[in-house]
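Reproducibility note. Readers wishing to regenerate the assembly model reported in the main text can use the exact inputs given here. Chain order matters: entities are listed in the order in which they were concatenated for prediction.
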Amino acid sequence: MTSLQPARAPRAPRRGPANRLPPERRIAEIIAAARALLAERGYENCVISDIAERAGVVEGTIYRYFENKRDLFIKVAESWFEELLGQQEDVAHVAGTQERLRRTIRRALSIIRHEPALTRFVLMELRPDPDYKNLRLYRLNRAFVSGVMQVLKEAHAKGEIDGALSLPLLRDMIFGAIEHQTWAFLREEGDFSVDETTDGITAVVFRGMQPVSVGAAGADDMAARMERMEAAIARIEAR
Amino acid sequence: MTSLQPARAPRAPRRGPANRLPPERRIAEIIAAARALLAERGYENCVISDIAERAGVVEGTIYRYFENKRDLFIKVAESWFEELLGQQEDVAHVAGTQERLRRTIRRALSIIRHEPALTRFVLMELRPDPDYKNLRLYRLNRAFVSGVMQVLKEAHAKGEIDGALSLPLLRDMIFGAIEHQTWAFLREEGDFSVDETTDGITAVVFRGMQPVSVGAAGADDMAARMERMEAAIARIEAR
DNA sequence: CTTTGTAATGAACTGGCCTCATTAGACCGC
DNA sequence: GCGGTCTAATGAGGCCAGTTCATTACAAAG
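Running the prediction on these inputs yields the following structure tokens for the assembly.
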């Protein structure tokens, strides 16, 4: 309760040579070092002093440019993800809803497959955070997700999606499936095939969103009735 | 490298009265305290000393019964989840695949809705862990998930699921959708309706798993069969 | 060459997890 | 009741990672 100064003793730090750099470059170097370390150890196991060492700098310097460890890694994730988005192929020219869906799904799986460390950090550390929505990363991610939403919207406009379905729900099923299919991989329990997983998810989603000319609940009932009718007709004709 | 003893100075701790309890009860009290704190603060913000205080015990005592903080909370999650599983309604008597699906999905959403702290901890802290699969919790969770798998398997046996679909993929889509639909809630950004979400997910999954002859890509198949039937009827009528 | 702004330093601080030498409550046989 | 023994409980302190800040020194401008 007494906030009387702990009277930080005056210090006279001995010095090594200070390698002075323009802020922009120093920031870039720190981010690069942190990113490399994140890739090989994961967030929890990244120690500031190691990042500092790898960046050829001292711990305190990092705090000159970043509020704290978390802030640093948010910046890391943002620049990393931004880089990946840049490589994104444009899907606008591709014809056919199913093929367009496939490509965007494939893209997501491919990122996960090639950048598990980044994925883990974003999915586990950042997304659950109360102010995740305020991060630039959230907006970057939305930009990515909007690719899928675009495809869905256009399909919807063309009447290829059953009117009763909610587009966000379809979107969640797609990304939910992507995540669940890759958890084992992210836990380093084994590999997965981008192509096979892509095909599986695409198939179920595409099938699931089709408009049904009859009421959904009655679909199997309808099938049964149809079968009975066909059988009856066959009998009649056989007479 | 020199592991020469830091020569821990001999101490003579002053004592408060020690409330001696049979291990089982002490463990139960610590777990209860930790669970209450987990519910109100989340894992990261739970400090051992606070748990100790709430359990009416000193920090060191906790380490008598639990290896470390993580171990303690794993036990918390396990007992908590076990308790929830006990309340699970049996779905075996319910007729109809769709309704059975709906109930198991509803159950999962209901747990998330009522125990967000537990959910967050399990999904974020435990599931990503490399040895998640060795935890008792993993098996408990499998028991829960197997409810859905059971429904899917029986539906599959009855020919209600397209042969080309993978059951695990369907399962992942279900739970993936559940999770994605609830992330905002888990970040405390707002509530969600258990019933509406249940219906949405159930509808898409049910529709998505239909064999082609009735649903989905079968719409035109359906039309073709209809045409054949109409033609047959015309023939019959013409007789 | 001096001034001045600021990049960089590194010792010290903080707080949370965890250890362990020590104490003392409770049960037991006499 | 009474010492002996087992073990629950204690709490000071170790440890380590994140963070702060008074100080230093580099480099560009005057």
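We highlight two features of this model. Chain B touches chain A through 58 residues (CB under 8 Å). Residues 80-221 of chain B form a domain with the Tetracycline Repressor; domain 2 fold (CATH 1.10.357.10).
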